[in-house]
Write a structure and sequence with these properties.
- Helix 1 crosses helix 2, helix 1 crosses helix 5 and helix 5 runs parallel beside helix 6.
- The chain has a domain of 132 residues: 2-Layer Sandwich (Ribosomal Protein S5, domain 2), CATH 3.30.230.
- It is α+β, with helices and mostly antiparallel strands.
- The protein is built from six helices and 18 strands.
- It starts with 10 loop residues before the first strand and ends in a 5-residue tail after the last helix.
């Protein structure tokens, strides 16, 4: 990647962060059902050299970098989408991207079979388990880190996202579902590999029970069930149990980290998201990137 290194109105990109780039020690294959298609999906995750970043591909095709420049905000309503120059689409990448970022994996090639990545348990935990089992190794580079030094915000409809200076990475997510059992809920996480794994990685995606029929009529949520998604209505959760009392808010931390990972760098700052979804997250990542004059 090529970066402009001077300080911008947003902050500074520190090239010589002292943090090593990492990849996986050996390739791993992960299989499961796609949340939207309901069909069998598979990813073959392979090591990559330092500086090559995270990219998605299909057999025989040119890899598409999983960065803000290739993210399509308009398609990213219920899931995050990247689109290559030839129109090749990769959907529902956010949970895998969050797992990679949380583990400090900066370089990997994800070869996908099927219309989307496997949904697995509805969060990031199974991805982390598989990546750790494959081994994580330094690959000889230094990870650029974005340091937020001045507040930056984005409003998108009813959503609001803000970033401010902080030494380290804190994510805060807030949801509002008035008139439902969820109500108003929030969660804060100071991100480290272990805290992410223990406190949020098992939090599942969620849906209002009244929305499910409409989603399926649009070709979405066909692989969803009460094992990989939290379903709720005005009075109750439809699941037998929750992984966390505030599981809905914790899942938004996964989504936020996975979408901020599109910046392709380490992150230092406090990032807040109120009533935000993937579209808003992607637009915010793109605003930060342009404010820092990132070129890829």
């Amino acid at each position: 990647m090529n970066f402009v290194t001077e300080t911008s109105p947003v902050g500074t990109l520190v090239r010589d962060s002292g943090i090593p780039t990492r990849t996986i020690a050996k390739a791993t294959v992960i299989e499961g059902t796609g949340i939207h298609s309901g069909t069998s999906c598979r990813v073959h995750i392979q090591p990559r050299d330092a500086g090559e970043g995270i990219a998605f591909t299909r057999a025989g095709r040119t890899p598409v970098p999983a960065t803000w420049k290739f993210a399509d905000a308009q398609s990213s309503d219920r899931r995050t989408v990247i689109i290559g120059a030839d129109g090749e689409r990769f959907e529902q990448i956010e949970h895998l991207m969050a797992a990679l970022h949380a583990l400090g994996i900066s370089d990997a090639l994800v070869e996908q079979q099927g219309p989307e990545v496997p949904f697995l348990g509805g969060g990031s935990r199974e991805y982390i388990d598989a990546l750790r089992q494959s081994g994580i190794t330094e690959n000889g580079g230094i990870l650029p880190v974005i340091h937020i030094e001045h507040p930056i915000s984005l409003e998108d409809g009813g959503a609001l996202l803000t970033a401010a200076p902080h030494n380290g990475l804190i994510l805060s997510a807030y949801v509002e579902f008035p008139g439902t059992v969820v109500g108003n809920m929030g969660y804060n996480l100071e991100v480290s590999p272990e805290r992410f794994y223990d406190q949020v990685s098992a939090a599942r995606t969620f849906a209002l029970a009244s929305d499910i029929e409409a989603l399926r009529s649009r070709g979405l949520a066909r692989g969803g069930n009460l094992q990989n998604a939290v379903v709720f209505d005005e009075f109750r959760y439809h699941n037998e149990s929750l992984h966390f009392p505030d599981e809905v808010a914790r899942h938004k931390i996964i989504d936020l980290l996975g979408d901020l990972a599109l910046l392709g760098c380490g992150l230092s700052g406090h990032f807040w998201a109120w009533r935000a979804g993937h579209r808003s997250h992607v637009l915010f990542a793109q605003k930060i990137a342009r404010g820092l004059h990132l070129t890829s």
